[in-house]
Amino acid sequence: MPAPATGDAAAPPAGQAPAPPTPVFTPATRPEFTPGAGTPAPAAPVAASPPASPGAPAPAVSPPSPSSVIPPAPVIPAPYAEARPGGEAERWRFRDAHLDRVVLLPTAETHPAGTWTLSSYEIVVLQAGYALSDRAQVSLTFMPLVGRDDVIVPIDVSLKGVLVREGRVRVAAMGAASGLVGFEEGEAFFGRAGAVTQLCFDDACRSSANVSANLILAGPALLLLNGLGLVFRTGEHVALLAETEVLHPLGREAGPANGMGLSGGIRFSGRKLGLDVTVLAPFSGEGDLPPVVPFIAFTYRFLP
């Protein structure tokens, strides 16, 4: 009786060589793989995703949210780089206590938001101001005059707002009310409205030329006050000042109210203190004004 076949091998057909037996390993006899020279190591197992059920749609891939996309930084042209917030032009507003005026005429700049200013013109004329924002400020100017029977107080309330602050150009609009308080007959007031354009010589606007026009409304009389002022910075805390003003009557109601003034001097200013030492030379058709008048202006400001 023939012996049974061993392993998986079956009896070969007649006339053929027998096939080699298929090795059968048990857990105890299974050989371990040992990588040798020139033998690639087996790849690490990769966790496979579970197969999708037949007919199921492919999973949707959501695009990245707009908040996760960082836009590129804007490119600021060189002429306007110093005028951006935090630039040199912005920092200079904190370093000049007299940046809002020339001698008597205003510039188109304002103090930083939240700044309080206390000024004295010729010692007896006092002014208090406050910057409502980085583009608007209000000021109150007064001078007590003590008479025999009553006290007459010249008073002026003005508001200035910056309309344009781009590169080396500044434009501001102004409105004011001036008058005398203390008359027995009542108070007398007149209004002013105007604008000023400031052309800067450098990006930080340390030096500039200022052209202004003011319309004075005194009842039926109208007068036009034009001015040109120059601020030329010679150092961190020193500047030269020059200014001219021309007063024109508009219509017959103002009569011969006309005149011209020249002024110039030197400015010492820092973050909190400002001092202008200048002289004024007024001219009129009557010839009763002194040829030269000294003019001193002092400012202390409380920065935020």
Q: Can you put this structure into words, describing what you see?
A:
The protein is an all-beta fold and 304 residues long. The protein has a single domain (78-302), classed as monomeric porin ompg (Porin, Beta Barrel), CATH 2.40.160. Helix content is 3%, strand content 44%. The chain has two helices and 13 strands. The chain has helices spanning 78-81, 88-92; strands at residues 116-121, 125-133, 136-142, 145-146, 151-166, 169-181, 188-200, 208-218, 221-233, 238-250, 259-269, 273-283, 293-302. It has a twelve-stranded antiparallel β-barrel with strand order 1-2-3-5-6-7-8-9-10-11-12-13. The longest helix has 5 residues, at 88-92. It starts with 77 loop residues before the first helix and ends with a strand. Residues 5-9 and 76-86 have low confidence and may be disordered.
Q: Mind telling me the CATH class? A: Mainly Beta
Based on secondary structure, the structural category is: mainly beta
Query: Rounded to an integer, what's the Rg over CA atoms?
Result: 44 Å
* Straight-line distance between termini: 116 Å
CATH architecture: Beta Barrel
Quick summary of this structure?
This protein has helices spanning 78-81, 88-92, and strands at residues 116-121, 125-133, 136-142, 145-146, 151-166, 169-181, 188-200, 208-218, 221-233, 238-250, 259-269, 273-283, 293-302. With 304 residues, the protein is mainly beta.
